Amino acid sequence: MKAFEYVDVKTPESAAAALPADASMNEPRRSVYLKAGGIDLIDMLKERDIEPNRLLNLKAGEADLRYIRLDGDTIRIGPLVTLHQLSADPIVVEHFPGLAQAAGEAATPQIRNVATVGGNLCQRPRCWYFRAAEFNCLKKGGDICFAKEGENQYHAVFGDGPSYIVHPSNLAVPLTAVDAEIEVRNPEGTRVIRTSEFFVMPDENVMVENVLGPTDVIAELRIPTGIKQSSYYEVREKQSYDWPLVAATAALTSEGWRVVMGAVAPVPWRASETEEILGSKPMTAELAAEAAEAAVAGAKPLRYNRYKLDLIKVVVRRALTRAAGLEDYA
Ligand SMILES: Cc1cc2nc3c(=O)[nH]c(=O)nc-3n(C[C@H](O)[C@H](O)[C@H](O)COP(=O)(O)OP(=O)(O)OC[C@H]3O[C@@H](n4cnc5c(N)ncnc54)[C@H](O)[C@@H]3O)c2cc1C
Ligand code: SF4
Fold first, then answer.
1. What span, in angstroms and rounded, lies between the C-alpha atoms of 60 and 330?
2. Rounded CA separation 303/219 (Å)
3. Mean pLDDT, 10 residues at a time, over the chain (330 residues)?
4. By residue range, what is the domain housing residue 94?
5. pLDDT at residue 18, as a whole number
6. Is the CB of residue 139 below 6 angstroms from any atom belonging to ligand 2?
7. Count: domains in the chain
8. What's the CATH code of the domain at 201?
9. Does residue 37's CB lie within 6 angstroms of at least one atom of ligand 1?
10. In this structure, which ligand is nearest to the CA of 128?
């Protein structure tokens, strides 16, 4: 492994000031990277997908950046809150169980103890062609998506390319359902991005997965309270040490039911036709089953991932009944 400097940074502001402004977050030759828990970043480093000269260790600011607070009608979450902490926090469990469930079902207990919310949202895709140095695919600046005609059993069924990754973050699914705010610091100041505008489709820019600029650092997540019911439900091949095959959050907001799916598209994917059927109606098992059938509207499966369509119907139905407390999936 190439030698690199390891520098502690204690605040998003000092991290932003130390990041190079001239290379995008995902530029493989970028010289400086921000590290939070390091689960994905160190993985990329060990695989030689990135070869930085310097890592900025944001964990040095853990004492101040690992908080969950109720502030009026907003839950404020620091960027270094771990997945385990999120899954067990009484404020999150009471006001947004769908987020606690998504955090608690990710990865493995060991990873959940280290991985942070900021890093979870910014982790890179799991596509095996992307992760293997031999394949210079579109996302790495090449001119072909190897998954489109290749081994695409874990890839997207929505979105129509040109890259068929699925977004890997569990947290992105419930956060998109309630359109949480992401506060970002950079050397110019602070900006707030709605979750619905944070993730980027590959036809807009195939090289990135989110709108963060080279010196943007996530400083806080803000979630509105007042979500009446919410859940997260997923199906995976292995119960641990894996990512979901299909996931969904159902949340009853002041504007009606929001249903967002994970692991089916390059960004968290709203099931709009399902939402239309649901409106703000009280949930029943029959309504959940009817609305879940509509969640596959517009899907275009690839050669090996048609099975995801059946999973989507099951996962969305169970997310809805779980949110309404109709069945116990504990
Ligand atoms: C076996 C295995 C199974 C897994 N299963 C799941 C799963 O089921 N669901 C799931 O969601 N995840 C899963 N993961 C992924 C894991 O949850 C993420 O890698 C982890 O959450 C990343 O967080 P981190 O703090 O370690 O980030 P890091 O690895 O430190 O950083 C990841 C990226 O985020 C950037 N970053 C970190 N913090 C910030 C910030 N504050 N502002 C801007 N950019 C930032 C870094 O620069 C880097 O680019 C799995 C991982 C493994 C190894
Ligand atoms: S799905 Fe995306 S990351 Fe995977 S091979 Fe195609 S372009 Fe590359």
1. 35
2. 41
3. 93 97 73 96 91 96 97 98 98 98 97 98 97 94 97 98 98 98 97 98 97 97 96 94 96 97 98 98 96 98 98 98 85
4. 1-330
5. 96
6. yes
7. 1
8. 3.30.465.10
9. yes
10. 2
Of the candidates 247, 12, 28, 11, which has an alpha carbon nearest to the alpha carbon of residue 124? 28
CB atoms within 10 A of CB 330: 5
Question: From the CA of 126, how far away is ligand 2's center (Å)?
Answer: 9
Task: Write the burial class of residue 144 (CB in 10 Å: 0-12 exposed, 13-18 middle, 19+ buried).
Answer: middle
Q: What is the pTM of this model?
A: 0.97
Q: Please give the Cα distance from 87 to 104 (Å, whole number).
A: 5
Q: How far apart are CA 275 and CA 229, in angstroms?
A: 15
User: From the CB of 154, is ligand 2 less than 6 Å away?
Assistant: no
Which residues partner with 64 through β-bridges?
Answer: none
Q: Is the CB of 147 under 6 A from ligand 2?
A: yes
Q: Which atom of ligand 1 is nearest to the CA of 212?
A: 43
Query: Roughly how many angstroms between the first and final C-alpha of the chain, as a whole number?
Result: 43
Is the minimum distance from the CB of 218 to ligand 1 under 6 angstroms?
A: yes
